[in-house]
Amino acid sequence: MTSLLEGLHLFFSYGGRGVLHDVTIEVQQGQFTIILGKNGSGKSTLLRIMAGLLKPDGGTLQVMGRDLNDLSLTERAKIIGYLPQFHRPIFPFSVEDVVLTGRASYVNLIPGHEDRRIVLRALERVGIIHLRLRPFTELSGGEQQLVMIARVLAQEPKIVLLDEPTAHLDFVNQAHVLRLIREFADSELAVVAVLHDPNIAFLYGDRFIFLKEGQVESWSSSQKPWDTEVLQKVYGPELRSIPYQDRALVVPIIDSK
Question: What CATH number is associated with residue 48?
Fold first, then answer.
């Protein structure tokens, strides 16, 4: 596998409060990497550093062999597609026009035929081509999330970073979005997502990064990331894993008394 992004010994703090401590990560082409951990462990902060939205206090971050800070905003947008956890629709643009904004780094003045063709292809790939003329503000939360994923695809990035892409989605739409993301990795994109639910993470992911109090929690070569002992180190003693196919499901320990 080809490494597309490497972060070495990353440190970050907010107002003097340490959030990330000596974090080293690697993101590979064709793999779905998932960042897991309790609330406040630094997951979204790490993703924003990888997207270039935050600058680490220490350490280095290289993208395709170049320091991220050396890339112009246009170069960065052609390599990294980032979907934040929250997006606030303001103007009633059509779905097609919202996705077209993902082509900004390729357009000089006016979007051309090729830009619109790529947008339509992204809408088709995500399965929402039928919504292309609808106002974005009139869509459901799940539909809006799919539009934003199509917008990231329209950038034609090498690396896709997703912060809680299944947040506020019902179970059916969660499965749909995770299958889409799985397909992106299978088509040789490097995909990184922050998720809260280890169950859907283990069903769809290839590699897992556990953050605990701003540090990467590791496990031995004889263990799997879904082993009860590993999960209890990250989340606490109140859960265990149950074998499922070649992986596991995570459940809370229920007091039978």
Answer: 3.40.50.300
Residue 101 falls inside a structural domain: no
pTM for the full model? Answer: 0.92
Tens digits of residue pLDDT in 110-150: 888 999 999 999 999 999 999 999 999 999 888 888 999 99
CB 95 within 8 A of CB 139: yes
What does the angle CA 80 – CA 138 – CA 110 come to, to the nearest 5 degrees? 50
In a domain, 148, yes or no: no
Q: Is 25 exposed, middle or buried (0-12, 13-18, 19+ CB in 10 A)?
A: buried
- DSSP labels for 182-233? HHHHHTT-EEEEE-S-HHHHHHH-SEEEEEETTEEE---TT--TTSHHHHHH
* Inside any domain, residue 102: no
Q: 216: closest CA among 59, 41, 89, 71?
A: 41
In which element (H, E) is residue 180 found? helix 171-186
Query: Which residues pair with residue 60 across a beta bridge?
Result: 8
Strand partners, 94: 135
The residue range of the domain holding 168 is 3-87+158-218
- Condensed to tens digits (0 to 9), the pLDDT of residues 169-202 reads 888 888 888 999 999 999 999 999 999 999 999 9
Q: In total, how many domains does the chain have? A: 1
Q: State the Cα–Cα distance between residues 190 and 192, nearest whole angstrom.
A: 7
The secondary structure of 54-113 as a DSSP string is S--SEEEEEETTEEGGGS-HHHHHHHEEEE-S-----S--BHHHHHHGGGTTT-SSS--H
Contact in structure between 225 and 202 (CB atoms under 8 Å)? yes
